[in-house]
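Long-time lurker. I teach an intro course on protein structure, and each term I like to show students one example going from raw sequence to a predicted 3D structure in token notation. This year I'd like something fresh instead of my usual example. Would anyone be willing to generate the tokens for the chain below so I can use it in lecture? Attribution to the forum is fine with me.
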Amino acid sequence: MMLRSRHLTLSMLLVLPLCCLSVHAQQTKSLQQRMSSTEFKAAGLDKLSPQELQNLDNWLNGHAVVTTKVVNSSGKPVFYSGDQKRHTIDTHIVGHFDGWNKNLEFTMANGQQWRVIDPEPHSCQPSENTEVKIKPSLLGSWLMYVPSCYENAHVKRVR
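-- Reply from a regular --
Happy to contribute to a lecture. Here you go:
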């Protein structure tokens, strides 16, 4: 079983550059080459002068942005897909902190947002911009450790 997953991973790594070349080749084509004549006319691009069309092509090629978002079957984002290595995150909670309750969400200084999934509430010494470590735990779960209150909370990344 392990051998098969290695073959699959190796195959994917070999195919990925070919996909990127294909995307790059598509981006360097002009709009007329990328669109059918019906689509081109329906968009009103046939009314542009050759220079205006070239300017639009140049702009599109220089501003092409590809966004890949990995989601699970329910449409929720997956932040660490597959065998991607998870690591400890050192950050700060933005604003006031005095403990947690289940479902309380914290926004971190790094822009991430985490929700407490522990059922037990915990009180800590009130503080501002509290230092935290978010550590990978077993079976894909995460622990948020707050050194100033010496406790861990199981958390789930929201954003």
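Some talking points for your students: The beta strands are 89-92, 96-100, 105-107, 113-116, 122-128, 131-136, 142-146, 151-157. The first strand starts at residue 89 and ends at 92.
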